Amino acid sequence: MSSNTFGKLFAVTTFGESHGPAIGCVIDGCPPGLPIDAARIEQALKRRATGRSRHTSQRHEADAVEILSGVFEGHSTGAPIALLVRNTDARSKDYTKIAEQFRPGHADWTYHKKYGIRDYRGGGRSSARETTMRVAAGVIARDYLATLGIQIRGYLAQLGPIRTDTRLLLDSVDDNPFFCPDPERVAELETFMDQLRKSGDSVGARVNVIASGVPAGLGEPVYGKLDAEIAAAMMSINAVKGVEIGAGFAAVEQPGTVHRDEITPQGFLSNHAGGILGGISSGQDILVSMVYKPTSSLRLPGRTLNTAGEEVDIVTTGRHDPCVGIRATPIAEAMLALVLMDQYLRHRAQCGDVGIIGPDISQ
Ligand code: EPS
Fold first, then answer.
1. Distance, CA 129 to ligand 1 centroid (Å)?
2. Peptide bond into 135 cis (omega under 30)
3. Pseudo-torsion of CA 251, 154, 162, 245, nearest 10°?
4. Please, is 330 exposed, middle or buried when counting C-beta atoms within 10 Å of its C-beta (0-12, 13-18, 19+)?
5. Is-contact 185 159, C-beta < 8 A?
6. I want to staple 24 with a disulfide (CB 3.0 to 4.6 A). Which of 84, 280, 330, 344 is the partner?
7. Which atom of ligand 1 is nearest to the CA of 327?
8. Residue 155 and residue 104: Cα distance in Å, rounded?
9. At what angle do helices 329-351 and 38-48 cross, to 10 degrees?
């Protein structure tokens, strides 16, 4: 089996490899009449792109978007929307040395074990380059969701040992290359990353995403619960090793009297549930948090095997992100948008004519 499509009614299929001729996606199920503009998508891709600062990979991709289908006179037609981005700055020779070696901590090993053949150039399909198309499709989902009053915003919550969720000035997230919500932490991040880059090591990060304006009712118990699909969406992003909704793992220490979000005529008194109860959105903000592991492509030597099963020391050269989490905020936002878009269309299909009984206190 293969699994390159995300979503049921808003179904996004991505294709392409990091060093292949192009990457792309096909979005099937987009409602007609939505304005779609390549330049707007390209703007969004710039937020995620490599080479925006000295703290990320220095690969400089054009990330020019070609719309091949599904858009007429600037609007979605209801036909599949096909987007293509040609790869323009792949440097495959960087990978010749490790073509027959497995980077410890990388998908090299498992792709080889599963498929028996591996495009080693830039990690092939396992590369974070693929997330470009998630962000592209995410623009379309976010634009539609915005017409419903749903907004999605993410930020870097922690980079290595540095907590950055000290102040949530979300309007300043795009003013720095880290998506840091506290401008006072940026200098510390710069210094930390400069030292890390010199050392040759890498580090992990935590990214948080919030969806506001989500109506109560999205989510399909029991196997299509909203939180289950959000967790799966985030876990499908390269390097994500953990996902939390609301209080998340902190719930283990919370008494029920604290964790429960008491309900009053004015609304919920807290949001430990992260906006989801029983797998269905409650109308509160949806709170998602995820952790990215440290990058596995390192110039510091490490022990591994080669494809002949011999012990070797591996050194990975080339252009890599010392912290993939730095560029991950737009990807996490896009994945949350894809889940909500798909779940919205699914809710409309099954329950579109269900009236809410009693006052809606959740808004
Ligand atoms: C990546 C390795 C690097 C990054 C790449 C992700 O690729 P390369 O070695 O070919 O320069 O630059 O990121 C992107 C190209 C991108 O657009 O995100 C990896 O191993 O995941």
1. 6
2. no
3. 10
4. buried
5. no
6. 84
7. 18
8. 29
9. 130
Q: Which of 133, 134, 120, 118 is nearest to 90 (CA)?
A: 120
Q: Are 238 and 131 in contact (CB under 8 A)?
A: yes
At 283, list the tokens.
């109308």
Structure tokens of 148?
Answer: 């419903």
pLDDT at 224: 98
Q: Note the pLDDT of residue 25.
A: 99
Residue ranges of E strands in the chain: 5-6, 11-16, 22-28, 65-69, 71-72, 75-76, 81-86, 151-159, 162-163, 205-212, 240-245, 263-264, 267-268, 276-277, 280-281, 286-292, 302-305, 311-314
Pocket test for ligand 1, best of 53, 59, 329 (most atoms within 8 A of CB): 59
- Measuring CA to CA, which residue among 92, 83, 133 is closest to residue 238? 133
Residue type present at position 280: I
State the Cα–Cα distance between residues 11 and 70, nearest whole angstrom. 14
Low-confidence ranges of the chain (pLDDT < 70): 355-363
Closest of 360, 33, 38, 326 to residue 160, by C-alpha:
326
What are the distances in angstroms from CA 289 to CA 59, 154, 274?
28, 9, 10
Say if CB 315 and CB 299 are below 8 A apart.
yes
Query: How far is 268 from 176, CA to CA, in rounded Å?
Result: 34
Cα–ligand 1 centroid distance for 14 (angstroms): 17
Quote the longest CA-to-CA distance of the chain. Answer: 68
Q: Measured in whole angstroms, how far is the alpha carbon of residue 102 from the centre of its chain?
A: 25
Taking residue 173's Cβ as centre, other Cβ atoms within 10 Å add up to 20
Closest Cα to atom 17 of ligand 1: 129
Q: What angle is formed at CA 230 by the lines to CA 224 and CA 232, rounded to 5 degrees?
A: 80
Sequence-distant (6+) residues with CB within 8 A of 256 are: none
